[in-house]
Prior knowledge:
The protein is built from four helices and five strands; from the N terminus they run αααβββββα. Helix content is 45%, strand content 18%. Strand 2 and strand 3 (94-100) form a beta hairpin. The chain has helices spanning 16-34, 38-55, 58-74, 137-151; strands at 79-83, 86-91, 94-100, 110-114, 129-132.
Amino acid sequence: MTGTRKTTxxxxxxxxxxxxxxxxxAQEVKASARRGSRADxxxxxxxxxxAKIAEMQDSDRVxxxxxxxxxxxxxPDLAPKLxxxxxxxxxxxxxxxxxxxxxxxxxRYATFGFNDKxxxxxxxxxxxxxxxxxxxxxxxxxxxxxxxxxxx
Length: 152
């Protein structure tokens, strides 16, 4: 066969924000492996979540602080931890719910979401994440109810 054959290589890459989130997750895993007792790990994880919230821009920070308080009050058995550089809450080491700031991926809104560990199943279709632009008392009550159910 003579001639040239043009090939196209399809490349899919991660955005800089996505790569940064993956690096943060790798650092979280390494830091967790280095820590001492379970109580020390829990205290360090809590401090890391509080520090990450403090770094957020004003509107995201205010929502994250309120969500952190609501989750801790509603489901004290859930353990705060960082997950891809964002506050998350785990049961038996598995993330149940998480907060993602709008700033993280330059999004229009922050997100509060649940992983499959939450088992919030309702019929054949149900929401697993909620867009947040601000929190009202009704929103906080809804989050508290969902988190209680998710924590089992």
